Amino acid sequence: MPAKIWTVAVIIVLAITATSLAQSGGQFSRRATVLLGDGSVRATHGNVSVVAAWLDSDKSDAFPTALRVTTQGRTFEHSFDFGLNAELLWSPSGERFAITGSEGGANGQYRSAVVTVTPNGLVWLDLTPAIERAFGHPVKCGYLETPNVAAITWLFDAQLVLAAQIINHSNCDSFGTFVAFELNVGSGEVGKRHDQVDAKQRWSASMGPELLAAPDECVRKPRACYVTTNHPQLQLK
Question: Of 22, 28, 120, 226, which residue is least crowded by CB atoms under 10 Å?
């Protein structure tokens, strides 16, 4: 199949998938709006309107996307590289929003940023590096891998809860599990850390299916969720 036709086919499938997600929230945050890359789903809050448009990705392995924000008759744009399955989560006031999406496949890696809307333009804050540093590499992996970083819910206008999820494939032990962090978007500082069981108790009503399905057994009994190839010494016993 020619590359261009294949690209169109993939976009159609992704659009259908995102349409079903848009009706029930995002895969990480139930309160999020899924943004289709063709701009057909518009997220609005007060006088602020947001659409996303995929850019030509023939020269990129990521998913370059243009975010177009309209407020008070003016339109601002910001391009980013994690536009697959992008979901938008408004802050309580609607003055800013979190955007989460994948720069790779459906499993990830997912990244997150916060966009603050001002009369003169957009202020972009990439949250992924800070959450990656706070999460570290807590389990054994077949090869080094960074976590998915996804917004779950806002506590206040400047306080956001995010998940750092071990990517859901059999490379790392306890794959699919996550830790939640509170982050101050004003300072960029990472605050309290919550393990998966605690995070579900606090914010399950705001979580999408990807996080709700994370197995708690892996937190309570980590050895039950070892990837066997990561522990050859145990196979000899």
Answer: 120
Residue carrying structure tokens 């992996």? 141
Distances (CA, A) of 209 to 26, 29, 104, 156, 234: 8, 8, 20, 23, 33
In single-letter form, the type of residue at position 149 comes to: V
Question: Looking at the predicted structure, is the pLDDT value of residue 2 above 70?
Answer: no
Token pair listed for 202: 């606090």
pTM: 0.87
23: CB partners within 8 A, 6+ apart: none
8 Å CB contact between 194 and 178 = no
Q: What distance in Å separates the CA atoms of residue 102 and residue 119, rounded to the nearest whole number?
A: 29
Contact 152, 161 (CB under 8 A): yes
Report residue 115 as tokens: 């966009």
Strand pairing partners for 118? 121
The pair of three-digit structure tokens given for residue 172, joined into one six-digit string:
């790392």
- Residue in the block written with tokens 């605050």: 191
